[in-house]
Design a protein that fits this description.
Helices cover 58% and strands 0% of the residues. The chain has nine helices and no strands. Helix 2 packs across helix 5, helix 4 (86-96) crosses helix 5 (112-124) and helix 8 packs across helix 9.
């Protein structure tokens, strides 16, 4: 009888183990998925650098002086030939590596967008007029003009640093807006005078830039819908 009980106990233990197996596997899969989603969210929240930042931190090691045959920043003739290949063609070479330049310029942490921005910055410093690429990361909610201005634009536009049109100063803004707001938005995207592309915030979308401009024109008062 004792032997039968032992056998029964072993069978019950085996059944319990096998029953728990799928549950343990499911828990493991869920844990892995959560870790993956958390990592992706962290990457999405990390602001991508603008072209100037990437170039100054990496690309200048060769492109500033033309070392190893790299096209020198400011060499309009060399970059005009390269620019004819378009951003997709140049970024493909940068991503895979070409001649003495390793993949991603030697920094595998650079995102595709950061590389495209670096290329755009060097092209523009060499006679080009390309718009800096927008981040591919989808933002959950679009930031308001007030938020953008508070975070960044007010640093110069509050007091008119370097000739920046002051917030709410219609005399400053109306001449600039005469050609249309799309022209002003495009100028902000590309950079103008002392203002870097996208105001130095590479993750700003075109729509967010428009919101900021409208907010500043209205004197720091957001637009409200008519009743």
């Amino acid at each position: 009888m004792s032997a039968e009980n032992d056998q029964a106990g072993k069978m019950m233990g085996a059944e319990t183990l096998f029953d728990a197996g799928p549950r343990r596997l499911l828990a493991l899969v869920v844990s892995v998925l959560l870790i993956s989603v958390t990592a992706q969210d962290a990457m999405a929240q990390k602001a991508e650098r603008n072209g100037k930042e990437v170039v100054e931190s990496l690309c200048v090691s060769c492109h500033a002086s033309g070392a190893r045959g790299a096209p020198k920043i400011g060499d309009k003739k060399a970059w005009a030939k390269l620019a004819s290949r378009g951003l997709s063609g140049l970024s493909k070479s940068a991503l895979t590596g070409i001649r003495d330049m390793p993949s991603h310029g030697g920094n595998l942490n650079l995102t595709d967008t950061e590389i495209e921005r670096a290329i755009t910055y060097m092209v523009n410093r060499s006679g080009g007029h390309w718009a800096e690429p927008v981040s591919r990361t989808t933002r959950a909610t679009e930031r308001t003009g007030e938020q953008i201005v508070s975070i960044r634009c007010s640093h110069c536009h509050q007091t008119g640093v370097n000739g920046a049109p002051k917030i709410g100063d219609k005399a400053d803004w109306i001449p600039r807006l005469k050609p249309g707001i799309d022209v002003v938005v495009r100028s902000a995207i590309n950079g103008h005078g002392g203002m870097p592309p996208r105001g130095g915030m590479a993750d700003l979308s075109d729509s967010e830039i428009r919101n900021a401009i409208i907010f500043m024109f209205n004197g720091g008062t957001p637009l409200t819908k008519a009743p």
